[in-house]
Every structure is written in C-alpha cells, then in structure tokens.
Amino acid sequence: MKKITFAICLLLICTNGFTQKKEFNFSGFSDKADSYMKAVHGVGEFSGTILVAYKGQIKFQQGYGFASKRFNIPNSAATKFRVGSMTKSFTAISILQLVERGKLSLEDPLAKFIPKYPFADQIKIKNLLSHTSGIKRDIKFPDRTKTYKLEELITMSKVDSLLYKPGSKMSYSNCGYILLHHILEKITGEKYEDYVIKNVLQPLGLHNTGIEDPLSPPAGLADGFSNGVDRDGYFTYDEVHMSSHGYSDAVGAMYSNTEDMLKFSRQIGKSDVLKPETWKLALQPFIKDAAPGYRWGFGFNIIEGKTVKVINHNGRTTGFRGGYFQFMEDDLTVIILGNHMDAARGTILNAFQGMLLDKEYYQPKTYEVIGSDDITNKDYVGSYKTEGFPFKISEFKNQLYVESHGDVPSKLVPFEQDSFFCKYFDLTLKFKRENGEITGCEWLYKNMPEQAVKQ
Q1: pLDDT for residue 12 is more than 90
Q2: Is the pLDDT of residue 171 over 90?
Q3: What is the rounded distance in angstroms from the CA atom of residue 71 to the CA atom of residue 306?
C-alpha cells in the first residue's frame, strides 16, 4: 500500500511546536528517542543514523538498521551517508565566496558565463542560488546509469520557456545548480570538488565529508535501500546500486556523517568561510512574502515562526533521504541521515518536538510474533472493502499478504489470535468473526482505524 503522507509540514511543525515553549526537557529524552526510533525502524520508516544536540552537546545519537546487509554491518555514528541536495548549501557557500572576492556579482546575468543559454540575459546569479530563476526543476535522463559531462547536463537543462519571470516566484530547481557548477569552475579554473574541499570543507573541519565517485565510494559509506519487489512479485526492500549521480557534483554528490553535519549546522551564520553580512543575506528568504513551505535564501531553506528561525536543507538521492535542522536561537540541532528512500524526516522531527516540549506524539506499536501452526490462512483470504478503498488478502507458500492502493502485496505476520501486522508498514489488521467465519476486520494504519467488510 502507499506510504500515506503523515508528516506535518516542517513549517507548521516549527511554528506550532517549537515556538510555543523555549525550555527543552531532556530528562529521559535519550530513552524516549531510542524507543521511538526502534518502533519507526520496526515499521519500515527509517534506516540510518540520528543525532540531536543542544548547544553542541550530543543528547542523542544512534544508528538503526544496516549500513550493509550483505556484510551484517549496522548503521552507527561513524557511518557515512549520501546527503543528496544538502550539497547545495556547500555549493552556495562556494559561489558566495567568489562574490566576496569580487570574482562575480549576485546581479551578474547568466549570459555573462553561458551566453547561448535560453533566457540567460534575464536570469541572474541570485536567481540561481535562491531557486527563483524560472528554470525547470529536473532533467529527464535518457540513461540513469550514465555519467554525463557537465556540458551535456547544461544542454539537457535548457528550456523553451521559463516557468515565470525570474525573481517573481520561487520553485526548486536542480538545473539551476548545474549552471552554478559551471560558473564556479569557469571562474576558478578548478574542479568543483577541489575548490569545495579546499575552501569550504577543510576550513569547516569536516573531515568525514566529501564528493563521492559512485564507482569508487569512500570507506564506511552505507548501502542505499528502496522499496522493491522480490522474485515472486511481493514487496521487499532492495539494495540499490548507483553507477552515476545523474546530476553534476554541485547538485547532490556529497557524503557525510551525523557528527560532521552537526559541526556544519552549528557554524551556519557564524563561520568565517563567509563574512557576517554575506551570511545575513544568505539566511533570509529571497522572496519575503513567499507562501509557507520552502522559503529559500541562498542555498538554505529558512523556516520561521514567531520566536524561532530554523535553517534547513533536505536531501534525497538513490537509496538515501535525510536533512539537517539548525534551530538558530536555541542552538538545537537535529540531523537525520537515512539509507532508505522513505526515511520519515517529518514524522521523526515532529516526535522529537513532542518529547522535548512535553507534548503528545505518536509512536508506532511493536508486536511479538506468535507461532502460525494453529492459523488457517484460508480463513482470511478474500476481498475486503472499507468506506474509502478495497484491499485483498492472499496466500502464497503458506504466507499471508495484503494488497491495496495498487501496490504489490506485502507480508502479514501474526501477533495474536486473528490479528496481524504488516512487516514493512505501520499497519495492523484485526479480523472479526461471526459463527466462526471471518466477516471483516479493523484496518489500523498509523493509528487511524478503518472498518472493513469481507466481500
């Protein structure tokens, strides 16, 4: 079944939660967080490493799931993860350094660097940095396994028309950061990787962070996982192999670990890799009245409430998903690095909010598996219907599966009489009998019940 979106928008999480009370309760937090993360991992919503720090002191740090299933290596504090689009924060810092050194201006048109690019006279450096260029978001790659040259990516990013007048609206664009990659290398005469390591990563003290070559990954890098289908056509988690990042390095090719991302997050707005006035410019929304949601400065998402400002960038790439969240006034840092495509950033952040502010939060239940010798699978097999959707229970090789919302069947595991949980989702089914016959069940997804009738 579809992993229905349950996370509250991060903007609302921050403005409705962390803004209401400024005293965080860390008493018992580590135990609560560990219990919660074990439950979230148990229902298939996280694999990776989590870190929470207050004023630089680590309050919670733990890995869940495997960095490598083949070699039985668990995720840990030392595990490195692909961070995807979090790379863009480092790209933006690099471009802003060149602005400070007088090598280019935020007002420079793209035409100064790529004269033949469509609408290059209308698009400025500041628009590329702030996702206000009007250029499309993504490229449709003809071959996801191929490593494309930067010139090829620039060609594939070209558009026949802009989405809007540059600077008038805000919409995320991976293509815009391809162009920034080209500009950086053209101005400096250096490869992107060499410039960023020397001018950003080393000054920030990030020794476990770098640019990954997918064909030669660094030691300690986790394998990535995604939803997949086994050889019999049933749901499973697949290890995903990546031979190319697709986009250029400046878009999303970095890797890091939780402690390096903590170091980075706490230096945002403070480090001398940028001047104070440049940091101030980078860490404010380019469009002041942008709608709630993502409000981009230069390489950073700014989430603001009445009494809080959170600097954030999320990242997602093949087999990985995560984000960093730096609460500026409180010096609270949350780092979420996952090696599964469906790592639940929003729900995890929301739960930590509840723990730290003594508010309610939802934690998935975990169950002990019972023996299946006394279970007659055929009793449950059939079609069912709730008020909102139908689903099917089937049997294959003496194993029950549930199938709904057009997705492949997923395994059911018994935990008490006539009750099953789904191995890969936060779903339980509690069946009902009349005169010994199954007549329906309660479908309980993320603690939201639906009553179903057997057809």
Answers
A1: no
A2: yes
A3: 48
- How many other CB atoms sit within 10 Å of the CB of residue 155? 12
User: In the chain, what are the domain boundaries?
Assistant: 1-366, 377-454
In the chain, the amino acid numbered 375 is: I
Upper half-sphere CA count for residue 50 (Cβ side, 13 Å): 24
Q: Which fold has domain 1-366?
A: Beta-lactamase (3.40.710)
The Cα 319–Cα 66 span in angstroms is: 13
End-to-end CA distance of the chain: 19
Q: SS3 for 453? A: strand
Quote the pTM value: 0.93
Amino acid identity, position 355: M
| H helices present in 309-362, as ranges | 345-356
Q: DSSP of 135-167, one letter per residue?
A: --S----S-TTS---HHHHHHHH--SS-SS-TT
Quick one: DSSP state of residue 235? E
Count the alpha carbons within 13 Å of 187 in the hemisphere toward its beta carbon: 23
Radius of gyration of the chain (CA): 24
Give the model's pLDDT for residue 419: 97
> 69-83, 177-191, 297-311, 387-401 — which is least confidently predicted?
297-311
Quickly count: other Cβ atoms within 10 Å of residue 136's Cβ: 19
Q: Which amino acid is at 49?
A: T
pLDDT exceeds 60 at position 170 = yes
Tokens 């339980």 sit on residue: 428
**Residue-wise pLDDT tens digits, 55-91:** 999 999 999 999 999 999 999 999 999 999 999 999 9
Tell me what percent of the residues of the chain surpass a pLDDT of 90.
Answer: 82
β-bridge partners, 238: 226
Alpha helices by DSSP H, 17-86: 29-42
Distance of alpha carbon 225 from alpha carbon 320, whole angstroms? 7
Would you say 121 and 134 are in contact if contact means Cβ atoms under 8 Å apart? no
Residue among 202, 267, 191, 224 nearest 80 (CA): 224
Residues 326, 266, 357: CA angle, nearest 5 degrees: 40
Q: How far is CA 374 from CA 144, 377, 445, in A?
A: 48, 9, 26
- Asked if pLDDT for residue 394 goes beyond 90, the answer is yes
Rounded CA-CA distance 96/94 in Å is 5
Kindly state the tokens that stand for 250. 């400046």
Listed as own residue / partner, the contacts of 56-63 with beta carbons closer than 8 Å and 24 or more positions apart are 56/262, 56/266, 56/331, 56/333, 58/259, 58/262, 59/26, 59/29, 59/30, 60/29, 60/30, 60/33, 60/34, 61/258, 61/259, 62/33, 62/34, 62/37
The Cα 49–Cα 37 span in angstroms is 10
Cβ-Cβ contacts under 8 Å for 455 (sequence gap 6 or more): 382, 383, 384, 385, 390
Q: What topology is assigned to 377-454 in CATH?
A: Lipocalin (2.40.128)
